[in-house]
């Protein structure tokens, strides 16, 4: 018989789906709650115990600044009317998000550890990906919708300055996590049968 905790966890994993930030409610979730969930999310597999994840919990002002940067990134050189229009749309969508967290992976590639074990670079990134999933599930369990984006806003020359990344040579973005309350209903995703991808011996 399936244990109650396993059932709840399984439901949360399957129920969590990406929801459009443009349809999030304007009222942001309590910052104190978000910080607690961030703290819990860090409990993830981490070879060498490097604790590579860094979190940037943005204010509404910073979110608007980031939205403008992404709009400019999408618009490229400002010559294509289609890209200009898309850039305006992204500026609005991102800038009006009620909550946004940037998760980065910090790995000191000049360290003795990395010189001896180059695989640490990939292992640290894997740890941060696990942390992002933990965070999404924790948000879902609190009734908070989310979206894990990889929109390349970090390509903008002002990104590090706006966010406050000091060691950009050692730090790379893993996820831009939008979060907020939402009434959007999204059906569970249908996956192929596990037998298609499972090798048993």
Q: What is the topological layout?
A:
Elements: H1 4-15, H2 31-41, E1 53-57, H3 60-75, H4 81-95, E2 99-106, H5 112-116, H6 120-141, E3 145-149, H7 159-163, E4 171-180
Antiparallel strand pairs: 1-2, 2-4, 3-4
Task: Offer a quick outline of the entry.
This protein is an alpha+beta fold and 201 residues long.
Descriptive account of the structure:
With 201 residues, this protein is an alpha+beta fold. It has a domain at 21-57 and 99-183: NADH Oxidase (3-Layer(aba) Sandwich). It has helices at 4-15, 31-41, 60-75, 81-95, 112-116, 120-141, 159-163; strands spanning 53-57, 99-106, 145-149, 171-180. Helix 2 (31-41) packs across helix 6 (120-141) and helix 3 (60-75) runs antiparallel to helix 4. The longest helix is centred in the middle third of the chain and has 22 residues, at 120-141. The radius of gyration is 19 Å and the shape is globular. It starts with a helix and ends in a 21-residue tail after the last strand.
| Strand residues, percent | 5-15%
Classified by CATH, the class of the domain at 21-57 and 99-183 is: Alpha Beta
Low-confidence stretches: none
**Count of extended strands:** 4
CATH-assigned homologous superfamily of the domain at 21-57 and 99-183: NADH Oxidase
Order of helices and strands: HHEHHEHHEHE
CA radius of gyration: 19 Å
Quick one: biggest sheet? 4 strands, antiparallel
Give the CA-based shape. Answer: globular
- The assigned CATH architecture of the domain at 21-57 and 99-183 is 3-Layer(aba) Sandwich
Helix fraction?
40-55%
The fold-level CATH name of the domain at 21-57 and 99-183 is NADH Oxidase
Order of strands, widest sheet: 1-2-4-3
What count of helical segments does DSSP give? 7
Distance between the termini: 25 Å
């Amino acid at each position: 018989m399936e244990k109650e905790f396993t059932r709840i966890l399984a439901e949360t994993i399957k129920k969590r789906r990406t929801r459009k930030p443009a349809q999030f409610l304007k009222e942001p979730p309590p910052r104190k709650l978000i910080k607690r969930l961030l703290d819990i999310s860090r409990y993830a597999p981490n070879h060498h115990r490097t604790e590579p994840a860094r979190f940037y919990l943005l204010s509404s002002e910073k979110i608007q600044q980031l939205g403008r940067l992404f709009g400019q990134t999408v618009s490229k050189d400002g010559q294509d009317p289609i890209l200009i229009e898309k850039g305006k749309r992204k500026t609005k969508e991102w800038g009006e998000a009620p909550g946004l967290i940037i998760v980065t992976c910090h790995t000191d590639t000049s360290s003795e550890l990395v010189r001896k074990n180059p695989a640490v670079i990939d292992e640290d990134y894997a740890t941060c990906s696990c942390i992002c999933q933990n965070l999404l599930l924790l948000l879902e369990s609190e009734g908070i919708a989310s979206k894990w984006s990889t929109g390349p806003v970090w390509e903008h020359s002002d990104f590090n300055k706006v966010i406050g990344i000091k060691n950009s040579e050692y730090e790379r973005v893993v996820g831009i996590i939008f979060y907020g309350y939402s009434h959007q209903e999204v059906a569970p995703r249908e996956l192929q049968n596990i037998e298609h991808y499972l090798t048993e011996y």
